[in-house]
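Hey, resending since the last one bounced:
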Amino acid sequence: MALINMLRFLRALLNPNMIFGMRGALGIPSNPKIMAPLSNARFLSSVVFLVVFGIVCLSCFAADAAASSVAPQTAQSSFQAGVAAFQQQDYRGARDQFSEAIRLQPDFATAYSNRCLTYIQLAQYQEAIADCSKALELRPTDKEAFLNRGVAAYRLGDFENAIADATHVLELTPHDPRAYYNRGLARAEQGHYREALVDYGEALRQLSPLDRSTTALIQNDRGIAYLLLQQPQPAIEAFTEAIQANSNDVRAFFNRGCAYHQQGNLLAALDDFTQATRID
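The structure tokens again:
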């Protein structure tokens, strides 16, 4: 496999007009919300980002906790079973449990929001949009519902609505790096690479410096935007930042090789392609 990849890279190097890069960004959903049995909010962690990226912090709003105290116990039990199934990556089981919670309590906003996220995992994006829209009808300031609905819109190629929903998140919480990153991804898909770079930069500024995996992810997409603007040097710098954040990032080595190739530095490109095959 490594030999086949190397031959591909060598053929690419012989074509000075070829521009290519490994793009993996698909939008970042939030996490299923945990509702405590009474009013005690809990915070857990779990990786649920799609594609190669992921961060996570399961969250619970105060309104959710209050709602759980009046929810019928059967609805609450189904809800908790849905969260447990989601954490086990049993997305169909999670969908069924959240659906049961909604059947038992039709105004259960967080169940709609979590089922929206579950539908995203099942690639049922229209259903996800419908559920997040219902969650927002019931609770108009639910930033996670905006975030997840934006991801579903992105997956459907509806970049305008993806941008609108990410912007709504930022209106509610101006320092959310996920919303900046998701909006940047949608803008890049529209070919608005400079605007995407602004969002990627802001996402990096808002991101915890300890979150190295997401730093690498955003730097990769930042570098690709520079590549598509025919600016190989800042692209190389972005991919180098990604590699410093994650020394085993195949995409960063491959993409930096593409940038070197665009710059005409074929030896450096070959070195990075070779490193990518070794990691792969």
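The radius of gyration is 21 Å.

Sorry for the duplicate.
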